[in-house]
cysteine-S-conjugate beta-lyase (Methanobrevibacter ruminantium), 401 residues
Amino acid sequence: MKYNFESIIDRKNTNSLKWDLFGDEYPMWVADMDFYAAPLIYESVNRKANHGVYAYSFVNEDVYDSYINWWKKYGLDMKKEELLFATGVMPSITSIIRAFTEIGDNVLIQTPVYHVFFYVILDNGRNVVENQLIYNPDSDDVETAYVIDFDDLEKIFKDPKTKLMLLCNPHNPVGKIWKKDDLERIAVLAKKYDVIVVSDEIHCDLTDPDMTYIPFASLDDDLSKNSITCISPSKTFNIAGLQSSAVFTQNKGFYEVLKGQLATDFFSHPNIFSIDATIASYKSEDWLNELREVLFNNKMIVKEFLEENIPEIRLVPANATYLLWLDCSKLNKNEDIESSNYEFSKTLSEFLREEVGLFLSPGVQFGQNGDNFLRMNIACPKDLLIEGLNALKEGIDKFKS
Ligand SMILES: Cc1ncc(COP(=O)(O)O)c(C=O)c1O
């Protein structure tokens, strides 16, 4: 390996959300990685830091060229005038919701899904409408483990109050790359019922080594023009703290409205490090390719470990993201408790934290239909991963007894 994915980095007392927020626990929750940034990013940030002046910056042309060149490999021919800088994917989605829906409108999400989708809709006074993904617990194939309920999707789209769909492509937390056929079916229905598709593609580069994702905007022009795509180097290159992202749309009308809204919301001004770091990120493809190998190996380690040591927990087949979706339903002995307050995944997650100091995200956070699951972040050196897995085994043994 050319790059260092082995060193265990002490992130404690660095004001890290992942490591410092909850005290002395081993955190495998929030989606950031315990690896050093790619050398070019590190150099770009240091160059800026050493300059010693930290005043206003602007978004230069090179940033747009970086996105344009990177997305060519995904078959997308972006134009500068179709891209807007934003300080994050969630800020972008906030602006999109404010610009394209009214208070009281419905926004569709496919649960279980990234929990912040719930907050961004509800906090802006819109309604969450869930198109629950269908889970096939016996499937060993990523294509059938989770599938879209298209009948339900159409029913929700038919409601005139439904104005927007937030698509997660690839999907967090189930780790699935949506197929072209899925994207096309969504796009055709959305167009038919005049629902705008917002495709959050923040995890798009983090696929299994032999896999590639399909951008929603690579569909036929008339379908793509009914969409807005959110992209960022932040997950791929672990630079979420630098707050850099972009919004892409081939719809000129959407573009103009969004440009105004991002400016109104003050989400269009870059910080001093973000522009150079974005450009450096998209020059770091060889680092990314090694990372994808490391993440895939980690996933295989977890799979084998669970099969041998904790057969009650099943790894849901996935082909993207470093967030593993663990089906713990066999450990849930309270399925028939008729209490609306009982949340198994919270109980299990809290138990693991208290008993063995391991912090995994409770699945219910991603929607009620995620309640039999835990989400595990495996973007860490192998030694740390094994430590986490041993803690999980110890914790589950205690939980069973
Ligand atoms: C699907 C998805 N969208 C957005 C974000 C956050 O994006 P940002 O930090 O750019 O707001 C995350 C972070 O985990 C995510 O998983």
Summary: The mean pLDDT is 96.
